[in-house]
Target: Gualylate cyclase
Amino acid sequence: MTQFMDVHHGMKGITRDQLQAAHQADLAIEKEEGVHFERAWADPNSGTVYCLSEAPSAEAVQRIHERTGHKADEIHAVPLSV
Amino acid sequence: MTQFMDVHHGMKGITRDQLQAAHQADLAIEKEEGVHFERAWADPNSGTVYCLSEAPSAEAVQRIHERTGHKADEIHAVPLSV
Model:
């Protein structure tokens, strides 16, 4: 298992409720791909959302995000953290 | 105080020790700008580093990163998180 940071663009104006709903949708099915979404942060002004997950692969992360209707624009393995 | 996510590009090959040293350098002077760097994640393959902080402004975050020799390429306020 590796940590991943994925980035979504084009989410201008995202609200707290929308972020929470998107995160809950991911959590509801994440186990089917062995993924766990740990945190998410949103900048409504630039429309950027960052999601931190632990997963077997970037593809597994993307499959969950695609099924819940918010495909990631970038997914980076972040094996180093402090 | 607001949370910020800043992004550094061009850090290909960054090691765990280098990430730790950069983070420690930020921590050593962060109080001078009222900033606290909470976490950092690095992808050595793409050379991307993400830093999560709590700070009074994006400019305060950047002033610390500049003084420690690693200016951020992007800084986003992330007032929403889950």
